[in-house]
Structures are given as structure tokens and as C-alpha cells.
Amino acid sequence: MGSVGSMMLGCVSLLLAAAGAIGLVPLIRRALNSGKTVTQPAIEFMLENPLIEQPLPEPPVLAPAAVQILEPAQIYRRLRVLELGVASLGEPRPGHEAIMQSALAAIDDAATQRRYFPRRPNLLPQLMRAINDDNVSWRQLTAIVARDPSLVGSLLKMANSPYYRVSVQPIESIERAIVILGSDGMRSLVSTVLMQPIFQASTSKEFPRFPEIVWDHALRSAHAAIPHAALVERVDAFAAELLGLISGLAEIVLFRAAMDHCAATAPRKPPDPLVIASLLDSHSATFAWRIAASWDLSELMLGALEEQMVDSEPTTALGRSLRFGRCAGALAVLHANALIDEATLRISVPQAGLSQAHMRSMLNRLLAKQEDPRDKGKQAGLSRLVA
């Protein structure tokens, strides 16, 4: 029995030694591959002492991935920072709520709203009905457009742009230009040109880029809402496009009112960016609804705007298209200003039900440079807005 036990102990010792030696193979290989000289005594020491803990290299420190999935709250927070041109909005300071309530009381006043709310563009109702009515002839539509010289000029410039022009001969007829643009081209032209005078927001010395960024967001939001409304929700794409523009208009109206209030109550103190951002976040959707109501827009459009006042998912098709367009447009603006990369934009766009091909087409359009139609020198660039 003793000899058998000795044999078993010997076998166990050999197995442990073998295991230790096998375990040392990666250590020796790492040492050899490191370029350092491994001496024979060092190897013999490791073989003779397999159970002694050997030093292992520290694991590499990996850099954080640049691509990130942004939630809507993060997207709009970054957009506010960009609009106001600040490094960050910071946290609420003492008196923040009191300032907010004072500003809201002043802005919600009926007289104040009459002062800041824009009047409805005169041609908007007629053009909306005419473009969406299949029984309206091109001749009837021409008669409506001809009543606005600035609209005629923009129409002819768009029809003669490289995207629409089909011959070397210039397009000089209003009716011919309308035929070339078609219904979709006319919808984009009308919504953009009719809203253009309203977006003539005066810049402020504290936040000079605000109108520019808001206008860009409104355009990109409208472009994103169009395919979602037409292809996913099967509702009026022109209505979704117009609501995207009105949402931007509401932010400019609210911004003007807030800036005037701050200047009146604290003329020597610059406005607090966090106060302005908080007002925009909490009341821009409400202002959009009030503007649309003052313009006598449809109940469906008013319902879609009302759904933007809460965080819960919209229940109407038009409301979902507007919510999607606003978020996708905000991501596109952040990308255009080099605040996020393209991979982050693509992975953060909400799941919308668009096919992969339609999603790619929409994103390519959103990523394209948007011309600002407020600049009269760039009116010819309007064709890019519908390309």
C-alpha cells in the first residue's frame, strides 16, 4: 500500500509540474515576443518554481468609442447649446424659477402675443387648398401665384435651376414653371417662400447664431417629416412639412419675446442662457399651437402640435411624423456643425418604419448643405431644398 501511495504522489507531482510548465509557455512566449532577452537561468528558475506568481502586463486602456447613441433629451440639450453659442447651459441657480415665472407671465399676456405673433401669410390657405386639390387646374394655380411677385420670382428661379431645367431655353412662363416643378416641388417652394419673411429674425449680440440655427433645424425637420408622413403614416406630407416650419417659427417668436423681457427687466445684465433654453424647452410647442390656431389651420394639424407639448409618444399619424422630423432634423444640425459624427447620427435616428433605401435617401438629403433662403443672394439655391 505504501508503494502504491508513493507512486500516486509521484504521478500527481509530475502532473502539477507539467501543468505549471504548460502554463509558463505563454509567459515565455510573451517575453520572447517582447524583444527582451530571456536568459537561460531565468527560464530555469521559472520552470523550477512554477507556482510562484509571475508579473503580468497591465491590460491596455481602451479609448472611449466616438460613436454613441443619443437620447432625444441629449440631442435637444446639445442643440440648445449650439443655438445659444455657449460651452454649456449649466445648472439652475437660485432665483431661476422666479425668473422663469416672471418671463412666462409677461410672454403669455394677450397683448404681448398680438405683438409678436406673425399674421398668417395671405396666400397660404388658397395655395394649400389648390395644391392639394386634384381638380384645380394649372391655370387656376397660376392665377393664385401671379398675385405675389416675390413668389413668381422664386418660382422661375427654381424652375430654371439645374435640378429642374430640362432644356437650354429658359423658363419664363409661370404656368410652365408650375408644370415642371409638379405638386411636390410647389409644396416645398410655397412653404419655404411664404415662411421666409417671417423668419427675418433680428440677431442679438448675446446669441447671434440663434435665428440661423433655428431656421436650419426647421428646414431639416420639414425635410425629414415629408418621407415619414408620406411613406410610413400615409398622411399629407405638405401638412407635416408646414408644421416643421411653424415649430421653428414658434421658437423664434418665443426667443424674441424672452429677449425683450430680459432687456426690460435687467437692461445691464446679459440674459441667462439657461433661462432662455428653459423657456424654449417648456413653451415653444405651446407657441407653435397658438400660431397655428391663429392661422385657422386644421384640427388635425392643431392636434399634431398639441402632442408635442408632452413627452409621451404621439397618438396621431401627423404628430408622429412631426416628432420624428424634429428629432432627425436636430441630429442633422448637430452633424452639420461637427458636434457629432455621421455614425452617431445614423444610429441615433429614431426607428421610424422607413425602409433601408428610403432611410438612406432621407439621411443623404438631411446631410446635404442647406441654403438659407433668407439671404436674397441665395434664392437660386432654393432648388437644393427639394433636390
Description:
With 387 residues, the chain is mainly α. It has two domains: 42 residues, no CATH class; 234 residues, Hypothetical protein af1432 (Orthogonal Bundle). It has 16 helices and no strands. It is globular and about 65 Å long. The C terminus is likely disordered.
Summarize the SSE layout with pairings.
Layout: H1 2-33, H2 40-48, H3 72-84, H4 96-107, H5 110-116, H6 124-131, H7 138-145, H8 149-159, H9 174-195, H10 210-233, H11 237-265, H12 273-294, H13 299-306, H14 317-336, H15 342-348, H16 356-367
Helix pairs in contact: 3-14, 4-11, 6-7, 6-9, 7-9, 8-9, 9-11, 10-11, 10-14, 10-16, 11-12, 11-14, 12-13, 13-14
Brief summary:
The chain has 387 residues and is mainly α. The protein has helices spanning 2-33, 40-48, 72-84, 96-107, 110-116, 124-131, 138-145, 149-159, 174-195, 210-233, 237-265, 273-294, 299-306, 317-336, 342-348, 356-367.
Strand content: under 5%
Number of strands: 0
Shape: globular
Number of helices: 16
Biggest sheet record: none
CATH class categorisation of the largest domain? Mainly Alpha
Q: Tell me roughly what share of residues is in helical segments.
A: 55-70%
